Amino acid sequence: MTETAPTPRTVRFGDELLRPFVAFTVIAVVAVELPTHRLIAAPLAVAAFVVLAVAAVCVRLFWNRLSPGRQIALAACYMGSASLLLPLAHTTLAPLLPYLAAAVAGTNLASRRAALLVAAGGSIVGAVTQLIVNHTVPTQDGWSWWLALTVGLPVYMGISNRDFRQALENARRATAEARRATDSEAREAALRERGRIAREIHDVLGHSLSGIALQLDMADALRGSGRDEEAGEAIRRARTLAVDSIAETRRAVHALREDTLPLPETLRLMAAGADVSFDVLGDPAPVAVETAQTVLRVAQEAVTNAVKYAPGAARTMTLAYTADGISLTVVNGPGPDGGPPEGASGTGMGLVGMRERAALVGGTLRAGPTVEDPARGGWTVKLEVPR
């Protein structure tokens, strides 16, 4: 059977209600028994009992308002008067009082050394008083002096109880701090996720709207030159891009929600839709979501730029898996006329955005003329990111 650990409410019930109730019940019974039982040195016994009762009330009502020094003095009065009463009052429950006082000292005093000194002092007082009583007034029902020394032992129970309460309080505080830290991390994660979603949606729409703007600019230029049929075709392509952008946005949101992105399959579909040759080198392996999305957005930007600045040119895309990371290479040949079409000017911000995205995941991006045959033109974009 599994034992249930005490809860803070259970410990609080014991400290604030049960123990004080037991102590005051014992004091009340002793007060009732004093007039009818044998007392040795009755005035001293009654005085010790009054001091004991007052000390017990002060411990219960005013303990937290006292300074540490006064708390020690009050515990010493409680313990000393109870130990003094032990050999003087031969009542039923009077022997319990010094044991209760020792437990109170151990439970309430913050200093373990002070609690032990108070308990030791009470034991000595009880033992010395018992020796004197046994020597001056020998009785059959008296205590042995060495037995009176045991009245201080419950101080260890009190100290253990205080340590247990402190451990529970520390555990409660640690739990509260851990909960606050978890909530803070959850808020930070939510903010990061919102930023990531906003960035992804921005990139998806940015690519799509760039293509739409390019087609509309081309339609405007064609209409100005009297080529109305070709202008209409460009407008229809712009509409198709708009419809595709909505579908692409939905796919991006779905991928973000699922937190998964099958990179080779997604790139293969993108390449097929843009008439780009696609190859995968190496053994595909899982990559982080942010890394996969960075590769995807760079591929979209590179393909969009190839279509924009070199329409009709041959385009290839290669995804390579290495031991340390992955690389994406997008290469396009020169345009049919050797330069970008009319209205296809850009600001270069697309490259800046790609480099920023690569840097966020610890990668690098290089973009420039194709090295193999720079005289014929062409453009190469190469992204390298760690797994």
From TrEMBL:
Domain Histidine kinase/HSP90-like ATPase intervals: 294-386
Catalytic EC class: transferase
EC number(s) from the headed UniProt entry: 2.7.13.3
SUPFAM superfamilies according to UniProt: ATPase domain of HSP90 chaperone/DNA topoisomerase II/histidine kinase
Record-annotated membrane-spanning stretches: 17-34, 41-63, 83-102, 114-137, 143-159
One MF annotation (Gene Ontology) recorded for this entry: phosphorelay sensor kinase activity
UniProt cross-references to InterPro entries, sorted A to Z: HATPase_C_sf, HATPase_dom, Sensor_HK_TwoCompSys, Sig_transdc_His_kin_sub3_dim/P
Domain Signal transduction histidine kinase subgroup 3 dimerisation and phosphoacceptor: 193-261
Superkingdom per UniProt: Bacteria
Alphabetized Pfam families for the sequence: HATPase_c, HisKA_3
Keyword set, alphabetical order: ATP-binding, Kinase, Membrane, Nucleotide-binding, Phosphoprotein, Plasmid, Transferase, Transmembrane, Transmembrane helix, Two-component regulatory system
An example Gene Ontology CC term for this record: membrane
Reaction equation(s) it catalyzes: ATP + protein L-histidine = ADP + protein N-phospho-L-histidine
Protein name: histidine kinase
